[in-house]
Amino acid sequence: MAMNKKLIALTLAALPAAAMADVTIFGTLKAGFENVKDKGTSSVNNVADFGSRIGFKGNEDLGNGLKAIWQIQSRASLTGDSTARNTFGSRNTFIGLQGGFGKVRLGNVSDYADSDMAIVNPWESEAAALQLEIGNNRSPLDTRLKNSVRYDSPDFGGFDFSLQHGVNEGKNLGVFDEENNRRVNLVGLGYTAGGLTAKYVFARWDYKNGVGSELDNTRYQRAEVGYNFDFGLNLVGAYSQNNDREVDGSKIKDRQAAVTATYTVGAFTPKFSYGKGWDTKSAGVSAPDTGYDQYIVGVDYALSKRTTAGVSFGKLDNDKNYGEPDQRAAGVQMIHQF
Fold first, then answer.
1. pLDDT tens-digit profile of 247-304?
2. 179-197 b/e with 16+ CB inside 10 Å = b?
3. What is the rounded CA–CA span in Å between residue 202 and residue 190?
4. What stretch of H or E contains 197?
5. What is the CATH architecture assignment of 26-337?
6. Which residues form the Porin domain (predicted)?
7. Less packed terminus of the chain by CB within 10 Å, N or C?
8. 184-219, pLDDT tens digit by residue?
């Protein structure tokens, strides 16, 4: 009996080495302390998680330059968040193939804006005032398409492109879900040369699945252009436009822009961003006082190659008819990548 136990123990000890030979564990832990004040209310202190995650990925060589690839990624909240967002595989999770033709993935796959863009938004926060609206709260992208197929091209002399199709994203919910019950088609384009980076995404989604046919259809596009100078300065600009067609046939247009400057000096990286949202237009007529102005300033300090600490202050001034109060926030952040 004792010998059997030893054999079992030796077998179990050997299994992880064999099973994990081609598996990489990776992730990001990011959290901070924030003081947030909405106009007309008292300030609130928060210990906030900024989307910490853990993942497992691997590949298998199939020969002739072809590989099977896979990834399972999940939320890993540092603040005890017990929502459905923390379920296993809730983030970028897929299986696919990669070779000279590019890469194809099936599953809960990040869209191009989420995985390849947002270079204009270097901020990590839970507060709206401490992260640019253009890539977060007022963007319909920068997320994952839960039931989708995505193709990424190889590099063509600095150019690349991505195609993605998402279908019936509410099919597993049991009840109709307005945000997820949609069909999405997306095109992403990129160009990199030296210090120059340019990105563009166009997406359209139509609520065609059951009850969703009664909802508005959307066309969204965003462009980002950045230049990283040799002496540590990085400048980025972005513009986005969202066009909705409502149930009654009316058209609504929402436009935003932002600029960001970062400057790295040794371990320090001061940062500044300005964001602008213009008045919403309906049937070509502006709805007065529905825009916003946003300012964020901060500095990061690299404690190591994988660990960064930072401080930031932001203000989000919403026009009086937007429907949300102005907000001021200050925070300290810590991020570790593994």
1. 666 788 899 999 999 999 999 999 999 999 999 988 778 889 999 999 999 999 999 9
2. ebbbbbebebbbbeeeeeb
3. 12
4. strand 196-206
5. Beta Barrel (2.40)
6. 10-320
7. N
8. 899 999 999 999 999 999 999 876 544 444 456 789
